């Protein structure tokens, strides 16, 4: 008898990854990915996803318990449709759950990527054992997932956790068309925009005129004072945003992904200083701020966790986790 397994589908702006998650070992045992771009046709992508999944199903004695989808954009848990997909505009309002369910003929569950990653870090990563957890993507953008009282929290219209939209400063990179929002300091796009605004009319021998967040981080690690200053300010603003979350939600842990995991030593000192200044000592004391543990496998495990928890919590429902 083979171990129960799940199929995960991680939908992003540059690639879609399809993987097999083995329940007994809690590991990804198979994975196949293909590239996406702004012209990606969702119908063609679903056909490719289904072909990969059916190939794996065909060599196993049993079908997967379910399929889980991590959507790199807005997702409506009630309809099973994607919402606004910034990096995949042809996917707006696409019925992704029903399309994959009808093609593969197994239960399908889906969440936006921040919620999916929150579930994965809660079950298998840095938030394991927590009842109250905040996960922040800290990648190209800044999305958030909330585990409150041991349950994923969606909010009234499924948009809980949009921490990136919160204004933390009077001015800053106009990410989301909102100067001073947290995403303008705690995201790859925001860090790059902030540095470029400071570089306007100035020369820096270490950086190009329009540096990326990666180039800024590399320069800071090499000792460039300008880049160190950029990341210190970003860390400070991140700390101000986290202090608000700490006081409002009183979580046990805040898990930060992607850029924070790679640049923790550059961001943490200013972040912790801001938290100490802004948050109540009682709430700050019980909240640990940690980097995501699942690393490069986070997206795959996130999609699989959506499948697993969906199957366990609502075995007769094939739209989303509630």
What key attributes describe this structure?
322 residues; 12 strands; alpha/beta; five-stranded mixed beta sheet; Nucleotidyltransferase, domain 5; 2 domains; disordered C terminus; single chain
Describe the structure.
This protein is α/β, with parallel strands linked by helices. It folds into two domains: 5-119 and 296-313, ATPase, nucleotide binding domain (Nucleotidyltransferase, domain 5), CATH 3.30.420; 129-293, ATPase, nucleotide binding domain (Nucleotidyltransferase, domain 5), CATH 3.30.420.40. 39% of the residues lie in helices and 18% in strands. The protein has nine helices and twelve strands. It has helices at residues 42-58, 96-104, 113-124, 188-199, 213-221, 225-249, 259-278, 281-285, 298-313; strands spanning 5-11, 15-22, 27-35, 67-71, 75-76, 81-82, 108-112, 133-136, 144-148, 151-153, 253-256, 288-291. Strands 3-2-1-4-7 form a five-stranded mixed sheet. Strands 10-9-8-11-12 form a five-stranded mixed sheet, with helices on both faces. The longest helix has 25 residues, at 225-249. It is globular. The relative contact order is 0.15. The model is unreliable at 315-322 (pLDDT under 50).
């Amino acid at each position: 008898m083979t171990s129960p397994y799940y199929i995960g589908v991680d939908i992003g702006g540059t690639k879609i990854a399809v993987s097999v998650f083995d329940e007994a070992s809690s590991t990804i045992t198979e994975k196949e990915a293909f590239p996406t771009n702004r012209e990606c046709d969702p119908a063609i992508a679903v056909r490719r996803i289904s072909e990969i999944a059916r190939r794996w199903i065909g060599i196993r004695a049993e079908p997967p318990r379910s399929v889980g989808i991590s959507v790199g954009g807005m997702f409506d848990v009630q309809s099973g449709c994607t919402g606004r997909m910034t990096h995949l505009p042809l996917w707006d309002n696409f019925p992704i759950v029903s399309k994959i369910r009808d093609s593969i003929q197994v239960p399908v569950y889906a969440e936006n990527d921040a919620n999916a990653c929150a579930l994965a870090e809660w079950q298998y990563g840095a938030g394991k054992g927590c009842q109250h957890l905040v996960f922040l993507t800290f990648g190209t953008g800044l999305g958030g997932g909330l585990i409150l009282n041991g349950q994923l929290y969606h909010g009234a219209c499924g948009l809980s956790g949009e921490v990136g939209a919160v204004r933390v400063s009077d001015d800053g990179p106009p990410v989301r068309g909102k100067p001073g929002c947290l995403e303008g300091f705690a995201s790859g796009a925001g860090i790059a925009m902030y540095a470029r605004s400071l570089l306007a009319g100035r020369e820096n021998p270490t950086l190009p005129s329009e540096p990326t967040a990666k180039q800024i981080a590399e320069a800071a690690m090499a000792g460039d004072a300008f880049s160190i200053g950029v990341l210190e300010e970003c860390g400070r603003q991140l700390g101000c945003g986290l202090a608000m979350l700490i006081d409002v939600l009183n979580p046990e842990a805040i898990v930060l992904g992607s850029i924070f995991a790679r640049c923790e030593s550059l961001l943490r000192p200013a972040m912790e200083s801001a938290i100490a200044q802004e948050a109540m000592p009682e709430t700050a004391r019980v909240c640990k701020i940690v980097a995501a543990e699942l690393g490069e496998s986070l997206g795959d495990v996130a999609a699989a966790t959506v499948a697993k928890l969906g199957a366990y919590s609502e075995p007769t429902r094939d739209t989303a986790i509630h």
